[in-house]
Each structure stands twice: as structure tokens, then as C-alpha cells.
């Protein structure tokens, strides 16, 4: 696996992904997202019409395990991941009160949310029954670029913990225990947040423009302390993934003018892009993202347009692989 780097002066380099630690400095702190992926793809039937559907859970307002009755979701018609999302048929018309039978789970459409395929739904039963139903019937969300059916553990990063992500915080695949040992030996800190990473694509241009959806997160006290310590000592805050950027920058914006990251929970509801002034994160490790996506737009907060265009050109010329199991980039905020 490969890693493209772009430093604060716009200089581009090419590395093996395992060489990430060589790009960091003593006193830096690396922040990862420890969210584990849930089986958020649920196949079933739209009861009023009898038509087959796929429901992809896309958001919830809490990380609390017992609060799993209410979700936002993207709905497709019949088919599966072997078809490109752009080619999937639409579901039947979804109206308030419609019942969806999703294997052993039964849910009710509460309303449509700014798009005919984006809904709020409520599951019936206890939290334990809902978790069990997802575990027994659900699959991981995946796309046509991966031909085989993936298992749940394929989507867990090496630091996966609480099951709250709808798709994997895939930048975390760069990490392994040997790398974490190497960071520690070099005087580089490591800490985690938990952020409910959402879906990356809906197959609909208008719906994709709404991404990323609001996403809950939690910053532990130890992580807030590690960030404060690194910043006070002149070290950099290095985010492993765009979800970490969203969470930390939202936490800082909620803290007022001091841009301090406080421990606690929040809901990241902002979009980060070229007009965003970063207050916490100095560098980002991410996957390779296509221009026009929300993930790629976030890179514009770190790099000027001309530099980002050069990075895109280098990635394309050297055939870096995108998607969740692809290559990686390391970029510093440009000065």
C-alpha cells in the first residue's frame, strides 16, 4: 500500500504506507476514530406494495447503545451491491406510516427528509431485539468495486471499539499495532475519539450533495488532554480520517474563541471545505477521494486549490487506488 504526502509548503512525496511514522515528529499527537462498523444494510419488503427494498442506515442522534430505535436511512429498490449505486432502481414511494419488514426487524417510516429516498424510520421492539436483528440479518454497506460479499470484521479497523459507524472510518486501516509501537517509541502520542462515520455515496447526485449527514461523536477526557498537551508544546494534531477532523473542529467551534477541545459528546453538523478555518487539526491522514465528493471537498480546508489540483494529478498519474481499501494520503495544512 502506498502513501502520498504533501507538506505545509506544498512539496509532494511518495512513500510506503508503513512509513507514516517517518513523516511525524516527536511531540505530535495522532488521533484515530475507534468506531466499529455495524451491519447497516438491511434487505426486506415495503409492506404496502410488497416490493423488495434495501435500507441503508445512515444516521442517528446518539452513540448510546440503548438508543437505536430512530435512524435516518437511504432506501434503494431491489438489487444489491453488485450493481453500481448509480444504477440501482428507486424504491416504491415511501409515505409516512409505511411499514418496512427487514428480516426479523419491523420499522415504520416517520417522514421523508429532503429527498424521496431519504427517510426517518423507527424500529419496533426493545434495543436488544433491534441489535440482535441487525446482527442476524444485516450486512455491511458495500459498493460494486468490491466483487465479493464482505464480512463485518472486514470493515473493522485495527482500533475498532464501540459499534456506531455506518461505514468504516477507513483511514484507520493505515494503523496497526506495530505502527502504534513505533509512534510511542518516537515520542509521538496516540489517542482516540468515537465518531459515527456515515455513508460515503448514495448513487444520487442531489442526495450526495447533502453529505455528510449530521454525525454524533464523543471525545474522551484523555484525548482532550493529549490534544491540549501537544498544542501547548508546539506539536501537531494529526487526524486519522475526515471523521476525526469533523469531530475535533466541531468540538473546538463549540468551545468558543479559545478553540479548546473539551471532553464530551456532540453532533458534527458542519461541512468542512475551502472556506473553513481549521482551529485544531494540523495534518490529516486520509484515503484517496475523488473530486466532487464531500471527503475531497474537506481537503480544501488544508490545501490551496492549486496545490490540491497538483495532489490530484499526482494521485492519478501514479494510479493510487481509492475506496476504503485503497492507498492513503498525508497532508499538512498549507502555510
Give the structure's gist in a few sentences.
With 335 residues, the chain is α/β, with parallel strands linked by helices.
The gyration radius over C-alpha positions equals: 20 Å
Q: CATH topology of the largest domain, anyone?
A: QueA-like
How would you spell out the order of helices and strands?
EEEEEEEEEEHEHEHEHEHEEHHE
The CATH homologous superfamily name of the largest domain equals: QueA-like
Structural class: alpha/beta
Identify the strand order in the major beta sheet. 2-1-17-16-14-3-12-13-15
| Helical coverage, percent range | 10-25%
Uncertain spans: none
Specify the CATH architecture of the largest domain. Answer: 3-Layer(aba) Sandwich
Structure annotation, total helices: 7
The top level CATH class name of the largest domain: Alpha Beta
Shape: globular
The tally of strands reads: 17
Average pLDDT figure = 95
Distance between the termini: 28 Å
Percentage of residues in strands: 25-35%
What is the count of distinct domains?
Answer: 2
Largest sheet, in brief, is: 9 strands, mixed
Describe the 3D structure:
There is one protein chain. With 335 residues, this protein is α/β, with parallel strands linked by helices. The chain folds into two domains: 2-36 and 151-332, 3-Layer(aba) Sandwich (QueA-like), CATH 3.40.1780; 40-137, Beta Barrel (Thrombin, subunit H), CATH 2.40.10. It has seven helices and 17 strands. The protein is globular.
Amino acid at each position: 500500500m502506498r502513501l502520498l504526502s504533501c507538506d505545509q509548503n506544498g512539496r509532494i512525496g511518495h512513500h510506503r504506507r508503513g512509513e507514516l511514522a517517518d513523516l511525524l515528529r516527536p511531540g505530535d499527537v495522532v488521533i484515530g476514530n475507534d468506531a466499529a462498523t455495524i451491519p447497516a444494510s438491511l434487505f426486506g419488503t415495503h409492506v404496502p406494495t410488497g416490493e423488495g427494498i434495501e435500507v441503508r442506515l445512515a444516521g442517528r442522534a446518539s452513540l448510546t447503545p440503548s438508543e437505536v430505535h430512530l435512524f435516518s436511512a437511504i432506501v434503494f429498490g431491489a438489487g444489491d451491491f453488485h450493481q453500481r449505486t448509480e444504477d440501482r432502481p428507486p424504491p416504491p414511494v415511501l409515505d409516512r406510516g409505511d411499514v418496512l419488514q427487514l428480516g426479523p426487524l419491523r420499522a415504520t417510516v416517520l417522514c421523508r427528509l429532503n429527498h424521496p429516498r431519504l427517510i426517518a424510520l423507527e424500529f419496533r421492539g426493545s434495543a436488544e431485539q433491534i441489535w440482535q436483528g441487525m446482527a442476524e440479518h444485516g450486512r455491511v454497506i458495500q459498493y460494486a468495486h468490491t466483487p465479493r460479499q464482505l464480512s463485518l470484521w472486514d470493515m473493522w479497523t485495527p482500533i475498532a471499539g464501540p459499534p456506531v459507524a455506518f461505514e468504516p472510518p477507513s483511514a484507520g486501516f493505515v494503523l496497526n499495532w506495530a505502527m502504534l509501537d513505533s509512534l510511542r517509541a518516537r515520542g509521538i502520542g496516540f489517542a482516540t475519539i468515537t465518531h459515527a462515520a456515515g455513508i460515503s455515496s448514495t448513487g444520487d447526485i442531489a442526495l450526495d450533495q447533502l453529505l455528510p449527514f449530521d454525525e454524533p461523536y464523543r471525545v474522551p477526557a484523555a484525548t482532550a488532554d493529549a490534544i491540549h498537551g501537544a498544542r501547548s508544546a508546539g506539536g501537531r494534531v494529526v487526524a486519522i480520517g475526515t471523521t476525526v477532523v469533523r469531530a475535533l473542529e466541531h468540538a473546538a467551534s463549540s468551545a468558543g474563541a479559545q478553540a479548546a477541545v473539551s471532553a464530551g459528546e456532540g453532533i458534527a453538523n458542519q461541512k468542512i471545505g475551502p472556506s473553513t478555518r481549521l482551529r485544531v487539526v494540523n495534518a490529516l491522514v486520509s484515503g484517496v477521494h475523488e473530486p466532487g465528493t464531500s471527503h475531497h471537498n474537506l481537503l480544501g480546508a488544508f490545501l490551496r486549490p492549486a496545490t490540491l489540483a497538483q495532489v490530484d494529478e499526482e494521485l492519478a498519474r501514479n494510479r493510487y487506488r481509492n475506496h476504503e481499501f485503497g492507498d492513503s494520503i498525508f497532508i499538512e495544512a498549507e502555510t
